[in-house]
Amino acid sequence: MQLKTLQIPTGAVFAPMAGLTDAACRHLMADHGAAWTVSEMASAKALCFGDRKSFALLKDPAPHGLYAIQLFGAEPETLAKAILLVREKGIRFDMLDINMGCPAPKITSSGAGSRLLLDPPLCGAMVAAARKALGGDTPLTVKMRIGWDDEHRTGVEVAKQCAGNGADLLAVHGRTREQMYIPPIDAGAIAAIKQAVDIPVLANGDVTSAAGALTLLQETGCDGVMIGRAALGDPWLFERVRAALLGEQPPAAPTLRQRMDALRAQIYEMCEEKGEYLAMPQARSQAMHYMKGLRGAASLRRYCSMLEHFTDVDTLIDAVYRLQE
Questions:
Q1: What angle (nearest 5°) sits at the alpha carbon of residue 278, between those of residues 78 and 270?
Q2: pLDDT, tens only, 55-104
Q3: Is 222 designated active site?
Q4: 3-state secondary structure of 16
Q5: Which residues are catalytic (predicted)?
Q6: Are 145 and 12 in contact (CB under 8 A)?
């Protein structure tokens, strides 16, 4: 796939997730074959107010692979100003993504995220403003859903507005906002959006395996898939999907030691990036995902919820090895 001047490597894209996809997490996924990764979402309005935490969400001094930043908002002028400010700050990124899919009430109550789906012309205006601020060389993508609810399945109309105003790619989560994350996704609705536009479309939602990725591509006719929560604690999922897309033999499953080494390395990088005090509370949820499928997983997850210092990670890993004997 080619987006502007960027040649996109074969593989699934790692989805943005608030509070989870920090630099350490993104680097891990990129190193295991994610086609590109996306920052946690940052508020365009907060950036315009000079909020340092919002700028910090986007900064990655040494991205691994292709890196996109994601902004949310409901005012085209504010979005454009935020993009210019990000550029002025010297924040490096390869692509910019507009969030039109987040279902969280604190986002939708401001008119942003999936609330935008109720106003397709506004979606088009947001893309047009971002396109003008970015210039013509940087790929502009949109993360969206198939609609707000069953009475407002505006996905096709929104997709046409986005494509017509300068978006280079759409990533479509196959649920309405009302459905939140309740399975299953509507592959048919994603397929309708793909058929309605002449730009690449990624299918998103419920991909937990390489076989599932191939099935979703067949059902939707999309150009690729985006994977989120299923990759947490299992970055090797990107290696498996990439092999399947290339028609290659699947890679060997990671050993227990490889899983624990990845856990330790990820949390270590988190501590290096933001300090132990801030990193460890966030590391608790990351660690829990690595416990999937292990003997004694319930008790191990309880221990994960109590991690306070980096040294606790080694104690956790020792407990993992003991319980697997």
A1: 90
A2: 999 999 899 999 999 999 999 999 999 999 999 999 999 999 999 999 99
A3: no
A4: coil
A5: 102
A6: no
Please say whether the beta carbons of 216 and 193 come within 8 A.
no
Q: Is 322 annotated as a binding residue?
A: no
**41 forms bridges with which residues in the sheet?**
70
- Choosing from 48, 102, 271, 304, the catalytic residue is 102
Q: What are phi and psi of 13, to 5 degrees?
A: -95, 140
Distance (Å) of CA 52 to CA 56, 70, 85, 87, 214? 6, 16, 12, 15, 41
As given in the structure block, the two tokens for residue 121 are 């012309």
Distances (CA, A) of 75 to 39, 126, 224: 21, 7, 30
The 8-class DSSP code of residue 14 comes to E
- Tell me if 173 is assigned to a ligand binding site: yes
DSSP state of 144: E
16 marked as part of a ligand binding site: yes
Which of 135, 132, 123 is closest to 160 using CA atoms? 123
